[in-house]
Amino acid sequence: MPRLRTLRTLLPYIFAVTAALLAVFILTHNYPSLFLSSHLSQALLILTNRLLPGCFTFHSPVSPPSTAEVNMAHQFRTVAYFVNWAIYGRKHRPQDLPAEKLTHVLYAFANVRPESGEVYLTDTWADTDIHWEGDSWNDVGTNLYGCLKQLNLLKRRNRQLKVLLSVGGWTYSSNFKQPASTPQGRANFANSCVELIKNLGFDGIDVDWEYPQSQAEAADFVALLYAVREAMDAYSRTLPTPYHFELTVACPAGPQNFMKLDIPGMDRVLDFWNLMAYDFAGSWDSVAGHQANLYPSASNPRATPFSAVAAVDYYLSRGVAPSKIVVGMPLYGRAFQGTEGLGHPYSGVGEGTWENGVHDYKKLPLPGATEYFDREARASYCYEPRTRTLVSYDTVDMARTKAWWIREERRLGGAMWWESSADKEGRESLIGNVVDVLGGPGVLDRRPNLIEYPYTKYDNLRAGFPNN
């Protein structure tokens, strides 16, 4: 009889737990994207804990770490590309950057003169000349304005914020091959990088060569990076207080490109790697696919021609430390029109925000579209049934999933975004959500930037912008 009474006492709890688990199963099966929402996850866990008070302790996978965990964890990098053309149609200025949530801004792009190797700015009006509020037209001497003045002001207010000059990019990458192949070309490249650092207030150089295509070019890339490293170190030794200028690359996530790199040779001189874990699918493909998935899809392999995990695993296998891999994420989506869905043919890409088939994240999801989460590939997208348009992009829940993957599953170095103008503000900011899951600004790389440039040709930078 006592056993029967005990069983009768437990029956309500058993039914309650069964009902709660069934609810979780139904929700996650039919609405997988909701499962990754911190709000719903916490609500389900709280409900279950109330049904069985004190029996279980639950931890949300997207909750910030405790103080002890923060102190033990390595510091993360949060890196955003700022493009100098963003000040025009996009109306996006350096002043608009979420500086307190970033450790690095990569200022894009400088170009390379193929005949000499000289690195030079591509839009001096945007870079050094345009005047904004607070900029006087009556300053005496030679003074720095434009985006680079504003970035230097951000550095003074946010001492963790490092600004690197990004050289190359897809459009200019054909200009690397010739100068990288000769000692003089490499020296000109490195010395002109240092001149730009010295005069414009950068904290280092990001090299974006897309992509070396032979063993000889891979060796030239290593030699080019060594030349830049040595030139920056030589300049550092001339400063009143030596400073470590950082050297990074934007690196490929496709095996047809990363397998051609001398990764161990590059790694010896790089501070970290910015993995371009996006553009896995697009208008160049025959079927609609995920453009920034973490994992391959075994059930729908045509939808995942590449994956972030395969790229990360390859770089790790070549000796790169996990803490040096910064995972790139898109602040845009790639569209496929006239398609039945992932892995199916499409008829076109349609118009975009600034170019065909590419939509700023802040314009997504499309009107009338529903957002979905592909649990197998760990990727998100929206689908609009009237025009049969699918757009592959990171939703808030997907960005939080990636941050958790970086922080807990793979223990990587941080996150990078292309590019800053396309993010939303407030609670739907992808940058803000990733920083939240990583643990907040307190877990970010706090190594200080450089604000003393005694040899610059610009009087206001040398004096520390006394009028601002």
TrEMBL record:
<dbReference type="InterPro" id="IPR011583">
    <property type="entry name" value="Chitinase_II/V-like_cat"/>
</dbReference>
<dbReference type="GO" id="GO:0008061">
    <property type="term" value="F:chitin binding"/>
</dbReference>
<dbReference type="GO" id="GO:0000272">
    <property type="term" value="P:polysaccharide catabolic process"/>
</dbReference>
<dbReference type="GO" id="GO:0006032">
    <property type="term" value="P:chitin catabolic process"/>
</dbReference>
<comment type="similarity">
    <text>Belongs to the glycosyl hydrolase 18 family. Chitinase class V subfamily.</text>
</comment>
<keyword id="KW-0325">Glycoprotein</keyword>
<dbReference type="InterPro" id="IPR050314">
    <property type="entry name" value="Glycosyl_Hydrlase_18"/>
</dbReference>
<keyword id="KW-0964">Secreted</keyword>
<dbReference type="InterPro" id="IPR017853">
    <property type="entry name" value="GH"/>
</dbReference>
<keyword id="KW-0119">Carbohydrate metabolism</keyword>
<feature type="domain" description="GH18">
    <location>
        <begin position="76"/>
        <end position="441"/>
    </location>
</feature>
<keyword id="KW-0326">Glycosidase</keyword>
<dbReference type="InterPro" id="IPR001579">
    <property type="entry name" value="Glyco_hydro_18_chit_AS"/>
</dbReference>
<dbReference type="InterPro" id="IPR029070">
    <property type="entry name" value="Chitinase_insertion_sf"/>
</dbReference>
<dbReference type="GO" id="GO:0005576">
    <property type="term" value="C:extracellular region"/>
</dbReference>
<keyword id="KW-0624">Polysaccharide degradation</keyword>
<dbReference type="GO" id="GO:0008843">
    <property type="term" value="F:endochitinase activity"/>
</dbReference>
<dbReference type="Pfam" id="PF00704">
    <property type="entry name" value="Glyco_hydro_18"/>
</dbReference>
<keyword id="KW-0378">Hydrolase</keyword>
<protein>
    <recommendedName>
        <fullName>chitinase</fullName>
        <ecNumber>3.2.1.14</ecNumber>
    </recommendedName>
</protein>
<dbReference type="InterPro" id="IPR001223">
    <property type="entry name" value="Glyco_hydro18_cat"/>
</dbReference>
<keyword id="KW-0146">Chitin degradation</keyword>
